[in-house]
UniProtKB/TrEMBL annotation:
Superkingdom, natural source: Bacteria
Family: Belongs to the short-chain dehydrogenases/reductases (SDR) family.
Record keywords: Oxidoreductase
Protein name: NAD(P)-dependent dehydrogenase, short-chain alcohol dehydrogenase family
Matching SMART domains: PKS_KR (SM00822)
Length: 303
């Protein structure tokens, strides 16, 4: 197979189903050798089934591509190390890590248990950090050894929930917002090794969105709409793009603009009297752009 990822080695986490499966298939079709990771659990993270990753490997091989399965839990420290090691020992290196694995345990704040909070934070945040850590160690060593920038790619998965907010998802949204910040910071750190770091906030019908998308919407939002951007980010041509977050789905690709300072006031002697802020803060807030709605769009100002 030849394509824009020819000769590259990619790891895709949570690639046994949903969006990750299509990333793995499309990366392989574009020439990458792929490690298909999936624990194979249910959408709340319970259970495990090695069949999920293996069936995607079988699909890739049947189409003429190259892939191996990995069944480790990405949030397990030794599992994450094994995942990165498997790419290096099986295919001789690692060029692309797509952190995609995820679970949901939606609950409003007052009803959420510590377990529901911890499970979601663990899979998304630690499950992004741990494989990225071992990949970064490998890329740093490769850079030192060869003296050449690695041309490697770290691609993370955030969500509209983390960027704009979604009712009932304080655990998931907090984790996904953390992944967006993790993306900005690690892009700064890894630039010296020639590694780019970006994140995607996908929208696609999968088992995770079964409860929130209508039948009609599900048909128009498929993982195949999301994968081309990730494949492009994985290739050589994206070298100049780093520290960015993309909102992608249904044929639309948007660059998400991050938190930034809005209107401000400064007091020369530095210490505000809380009693004087009542005359200042409401006006400051009124002058600021409103937060985006849950689709990421800023409502038009009232005439
Ligand atoms: N579908 C959407 O519209 C949407 C929207 C925003 C963000 N996302 C994010 O996109 C990613 C993919 O979601 P999806 O919709 O394809 O869901 P999915 O449930 O279809 O796929 C996720 C896969 O991750 C695997 N997984 C879960 N925990 C794992 C772990 N600890 N180790 C290894 N594998 C694990 C699951 O077994 C599953 O196969 C997730 O990070 C999700 O939060 C999806």
């Amino acid at each position: 197979m030849s394509g824009i990822c020819e000769g590259r080695v990619a790891v895709v986490t949570g690639a046994g189903r949903g969006i990750g499966r299509v990333y793995a298939l499309d990366l392989a079709r574009e020439g990458a050798r792929v490690v298909v990771n999936d624990l194979g659990g249910s959408n709340d993270g319970s259970g495990a089934d090695t069949g999920a990753a293996q069936s995607v490997v079988d699909e890739i091989v049947a189409a003429g591509g190259t892939a191996v399965a990995n069944h480790d839990d990405v949030s397990d420290w030794d599992g994450a190390r094994r995942l990165v090691d498997q790419a290096v020992t099986t295919f001789g290196g690692l060029d692309v890590l797509v952190n995609n694995a995820g679970i949901l345990r939606d609950r409003t704040l007052a009803s959420m248990s510590a377990e529901e909070w911890d499970a979601v934070i663990r899979v998304h945040l630690r499950g992004t950090f741990a494989p990225s850590h071992f990949a970064a160690q490998y890329w740093r060593a490769r850079h030192k050894e060869t003296g050449a920038p690695t041309g490697a790619r770290l691609i993370n998965t955030t969500s509209a929930s983390g960027l704009y907010g979604a009712f009932g998802q304080s655990n998931y949204g907090a984790a996904k917002a953390g992944i967006a910040s993790f993306t900005l910071i690690t892009a700064m750190e890894l630039a010296r090794h020639g590694v780019t770091v970006n994140a995607v906030a996908p929208v696609a019908s999968t088992r995770l969105t079964e409860d929130v998308m209508s039948e009609g919407l599900r048909a128009t939002l498929v993982p195949e709409h999301v994968a081309p951007l990730v494949v492009w980010l994985a290739g050589a041509e994206s070298a100049g793009v780093t520290g960015r977050v993309f909102d992608v789905g249904g044929g639309r690709i948007s660059v998400v603009e991050s938190w930034r300072l809005g209107p401000e006031v400064t007091r020369a002697d530095g210490v505000w009297d809380p009693a004087e802020l009542g005359a200042i803060i409401p006006g400051l807030v009124a002058d600021a752009a409103p937060n985006p709605d849950r689709t990421g769009r800023v409502p038009a100002p009232r005439p």
